[in-house]
Amino acid sequence: MLTLLKQSPWSARIGLFIIMVNLATILLAPYIAPYGETELIGDVWAPMSSEYLLGTDQLGRDMFTRVVYGARNTISIALAIVFLSFGVGCSLGLIAATLGGWVDQVLGRFVDIIMAFPTLIFALMVLSVVGTSIPTLIVVIAILDSTRVFRVSRAVAMDIEVQDFVEVARLRGEGLWWVMRHEILPNAMPPLIAEFGLRFCFVFLFISSLSFLGLGIQPPTADWGSMVRENAGAISYGIYSPMYPATAIAFLTIGVNLVVDWMLNRSSMLRNQ
């Protein structure tokens, strides 16, 4: 691992540093934050000071504390969604590519129907009907995102499925699940890992967009997207409170993309050798 890190470009190291800082923030949020997540501690939109590192928000809560807890809430939910969407999308994509025939046709047409609707509009319609609790938010976005994962995993698996070593495994009498688990999935991991990083960025920004529109993570739970919306009026008074969560969103997105670009370049170099 250390050798791989030493061989990585500086852009990837910067991306890894940003990701590690955010992960540390998630794990140590109660110890880093000076106040409680919903604690009212000062005046509305108080300026930065030694007592309030980033000032206060529209209700008088410490902005630095809200940003720290927002990292834990937003990133944790985004990771849960991506893991669930990858579990569903990769499984169905590998099954469709391996079995083919009517199974591939049925799954493919079902995914086409869901993808025919704009994702944001579809999510807004569903969440406005079924509610905006965190479990509902995770399931709805994971189902929508799994359609993209299905298309990618199916395409990758179909390229691998026609290779000679897969045919040899079938001639040996290996079953469907053995072939998927031992032959197709290990060879599909590099592009799928890169896709995982990209999907995390999309889901992370998608959650922030829903929260900004009022249908994402609900207050008083701290969330970067809703924090931008709640403090947007401060800009009119020359107060930069909404810029802090917006900057956190931008930095994490850039960091993940830097690492994903490095992984994609590395996997393409390995294939060309």
How would you describe this protein?
This protein has 273 residues and is an all-alpha fold. The protein has one domain (21-27, 54-272): MetI-like fold. The chain contains 10 helices and no strands. Helix 3 (63-99) runs antiparallel to helix 8 (176-213), helix 7 (164-171) crosses helix 8 (176-213) and helix 8 (176-213) packs parallel to helix 9 (224-230). It is elongated, with a radius of gyration of 22 Å. The model is unreliable at 269-273 (pLDDT under 50).
Short description:
The chain has 273 residues and is mostly helical.
Please give the share of residues in helix: over 70%
β-strand number: 0
Give the topology string: H per helix, E per strand. Answer: HHHHHHHHHH
Radius of gyration, in angstroms, nearest whole number: 22 Å
**What's the CATH class label?**
Mainly Alpha
Overall tally of domains: 1
Low-confidence stretches: 269-273
> What percent of residues are in strands?
under 5%
In CATH terms, what is the architecture?
Answer: Orthogonal Bundle
The CATH superfamily is identified as MetI-like
**Shape by Cα distribution:** elongated
Topology-level CATH name = MetI-like fold
Distance between the termini: 21 Å
Biggest sheet statistics: none
Structural class assignment: mainly alpha
Supply the number of helical segments. Answer: 10
The averaged pLDDT comes out at 86
